[in-house]
Design a protein that fits this description.
The complex is a heterodimer of chains A (111) and B (111).
Chain A: E1 4-7, E2 10-13, E3 18-25, E4 31-37, E5 44-50, E6 53-57, E7 64-70, E8 73-79, E9 87-94, E10 100-102, E11 106-110
Parallel strand pairs in A: 2-11
Antiparallel strand pairs in A: 1-3, 3-8, 4-5, 4-9, 5-6, 7-8, 9-10, 9-11
Chain B: E1 9-13, E2 18-23, E3 32-38, E4 45-50, E5 55-56, E6 61-64, E7 70-75, E8 84-91, E9 105-110
Parallel strand pairs in B: 1-9
Antiparallel strand pairs in B: 2-7, 3-4, 3-8, 5-6, 6-7, 8-9
Classes of the chains: A mainly beta (111), B mainly beta (111).
Chain lengths: 111, 111
């Protein structure tokens, strides 16, 4: 199984809502990633987890809160988002240094 | 982080080879050269990676200059399905797990 599964595929949320994005992989990869992608722009790295510990936070606002409950799961908790946070959120996993596998993303709209 | 430079866009005819260039003049000895592509409405997809020697796989070939300051992704026979944004990325797994996307090259395939 070489898939990274992201749920939900689409999400619409209000600025006062709390929601979570989920990502799952069963390849035994030690590194997991969250990216944000705006239309016609490259993916922008947000967070990296290595061995279930947060190793990189690219100065992401605290309204985005990552969590890695176990080696297969990665969550992104969302709270008090702004309309400009609307984007495609991508999850990825890798062994570190080897190829990374990306999910199809969650398209988030903040209203 | 070492940077890569790619042309914004390229065109190629269907069923012809495509050579996508990437400059990385500040590459260090431990940096790997990765290529990913992103088809419309999909997550990025791994294409190929290498360190010093040229690499071939079922999707493409990677030609790395002797001084490693540039590389070329070669698609041997382009099809319409190869129309995508191609990203050349340097990673330093001995330091961290970062995968940072640059602007990439948008490849158009003409039928």
């Amino acid at each position: 199984d070489t898939e990274v599964t992201q749920t939900p595929k689409h999400l619409v949320m209000g600025m006062t809502n709390k929601k979570s994005l989920k990502c799952e992989q069963h390849m035994g990869h030690r590194a997991m990633y969250w990216y944000k992608q705006k239309a016609k722009k490259p993916p922008e790295l947000m967070f990296v987890y290595s061995y279930e510990k947060l190793s990189i936070n690219e100065s992401v606002p605290s309204r985005f809160s990552p969590e890695c409950p176990n080696s297969s799961l990665l969550n992104l908790h969302l709270h008090a988002l702004q309309p400009e946070d609307s984007a495609l959120y991508l999850c990825a996993s890798s062994h570190g240094g080897e190829q990374a596998f990306f999910g199809q993303g969650t398209r988030l709209t903040v209203v | 982080d070492a940077k890569t430079t790619q042309p914004n866009s390229m065109e190629s005819n269907e069923e012809e080879p495509v050579h996508l260039p990437c400059n990385h003049s500040t590459i260090s000895g431990t940096d790997y050269i990765h290529w990913y592509r992103q088809l419309p409405s999909q997550g990025p997809e791994y294409v190929i990676h290498g360190l010093t020697s040229n690499v071939n796989n079922r999707m493409a070939s990677l030609a790395i200059a002797e001084d490693r300051k540039s590389s070329t992704l070669i698609l041997h026979r382009a099809t319409l399905r190869d129309a995508a944004v191609y990203y050349c990325i340097l990673t330093t797994p001995t330091r961290d797990d970062k995968i940072i996307f640059g602007k990439g090259t948008r490849l158009h395939i003409l039928p």
